[in-house]
Amino acid sequence: MTGLPSRLPTDAVLGSISTSGTHPGLATSNLSEHGSEARCLVVQKLPNPADLDDPALAGRIADGDTLAMQAMMRRYNQRLFRAARSILKDDCEAEEAVQDAWLRAFRAMHTFRGEASLSTWLTRIVCNEALGRVRKSNRRAGIIPIESPATEAAEHELPSVQDDPDHAPENTAMRAEIRRLIEHKIDSLPDAFRSVFVLRALEDMSVEDVAQSLGINEATVRTRYFRARGLLREELALEIDVNMENAYAFAGARCDRIVANVLMRMQDPASGGYDAAQPKPGDQP
Fold this sequence. Notes:
By secondary structure, this protein is mostly helical. It folds into 3 domains: 10-43, no CATH class; 50-141, Orthogonal Bundle (Rna Polymerase Sigma Factor, Chain: A); 149-165 and 181-239, Arc Repressor Mutant, subunit A (Orthogonal Bundle), CATH 1.10.10. 55% of the residues lie in helices and 6% in strands. Strands 1-2-3 form a 3-stranded antiparallel sheet. The longest helix has 27 residues, at 218-244. It is elongated, with a radius of gyration of 33 Å. The N and C termini lie far apart (123 Å).
């Protein structure tokens, strides 16, 4: 009985690999030596989708790879949510818009030609989805929109900013409050300004990418971003001025507590009390 050789030449293995195997990620090799044939399976490990660049990921998605879809969603969910939220001003609506935008993007992934970056292409899709929802909502309400981020209409004014969370016990609530204030001010910006500001300031997108995403020219992006920043500064400065007089406030319960504690100590001999023989407050020494 003729057995397989104990060691196969490396060049024979590498030189005769055929990728016609039936298992994904596996390649088969037919080897012939001393009149015997050996069938060798060579494992080819596929890269983790999360490690792929955008074009490679898009190619995998076009082939129906669900792991690649998951990786892309995790990579761009925040950007798309922020873009949708800047238009819709509602978390739930924005989430739904992002989901619908992903479905549209995945179905059309085979049409992506790389003329713009994938992130810009996706942002454009979610912005169109969000704007469609606004138009539909306005039709239902019988309202004609004054302005949308994708139009070059007049640029009205109003306010907003961003956050920077650290980890510190007593500062957590304060930061959350500041974040809510900033988000509220961003929401109060005009539609055209708000979308540009969110994509430029929060997502750090280039002027060119923002222009492509919103369908406006680059000069308009710069103008709206500059005005949005100015409005935010004004609104936040006003908020500070309004609350400045309340800084270090000492009234209400805090004031009552001091008064009660002092009066109690005056009645307590153990703590020195208030001795009628001692000079009273206001007496001349």
